[in-house]
Automatic annotation (TrEMBL):
One of its GO terms (cellular component) is plasma membrane. This is ABC transporter permease. Pfam families: BPD_transp_1. InterPro entries: BP-dependent_transpt_permease (IPR050366), MetI-like (IPR000515), MetI-like_sf (IPR035906).
Amino acid sequence: MDSSTRGRATMADARSRFRTLLPRRSAKLVGGFAIVGAIVLFAILGPLIAQPPRDSDNASLQQPSAEHWLGTSKLGYDVFSQLAWGTQGSLMIGLVAGIIALVLAVVFGVLAGYFGGFADEALSLFTNIMLVIPGLPLVMVIAAYVQRSEGLGDFARSSVLVAIVLGITGWAGSAVVLRAQAKSLRSREYVAAARVAGEKAWRVIFVEILPNLVPLLAAQFIFGIIFAILGEAGLSYLGLGATGSITWGTMLNDAQTGQAVGTGAWWWFVPPGAMIAALGAGLSLINFAIDEVVNPKLRLAPENARKVRRAARAGVGVTETGVIA
């Protein structure tokens, strides 16, 4: 077999191995992508048809109508417009924080698991320190300190800074999971063969380790997005959020300070809360579909349950593996 034939065979094997890492199409995956896709589409198209989010020329606390689809706030802001721009802001915070958290988790998790020894001890020590510190209080302290620092100007209360703070405080749990998987992959034959062949460490990590962690990396990235959006909503509700931009969290904070619950202005606080819940549900469904790739038992569980029910109706026994006895 010549070199070109071996190269094509290797590429075909790599593509086949990559396809096995992709989640199978299922109701959870389709439903999750439909929900998340609709929210992303709303974030893109919503601002194009909405009035300026800070336009206060409208009458205050108007109920939903043909003119204002989601009513108005106490200051006369159109809630639909605020929701459209807030969706953009929250998604941006989730993506930026998720990427930062994933990169840090790979650095502190995969590198520790692959190299072992002193590097593992040092990186794991820092990861464990981050794990034992309560997450929300740490985020609150960092956000409050940074926002009161001199020289940052408008950046001190921007959504980008909030995303950075959430990203650097939300990676430790993912790092622990990735470290365990990297240690397991480090002992596989193909990784050992690459190391014996003299491949550089960075190439082994990027070519042999990380491709096999794709489902796990995707799951951790989704978890990071959910954590960031919920964290931003909590910070904004406490008055530590991004006052320089509009997010779902700042909408909830405005509704809380404007006594929306007391005045019965449900259209002010229900939409951002519903969007947070919908996005969390959609991302969770996608995460469940990815979990079925990481853990094949989850993928086989529904079929095994159906076999058990059919066997029970037929009056025969079924083993734990789903085989009819």
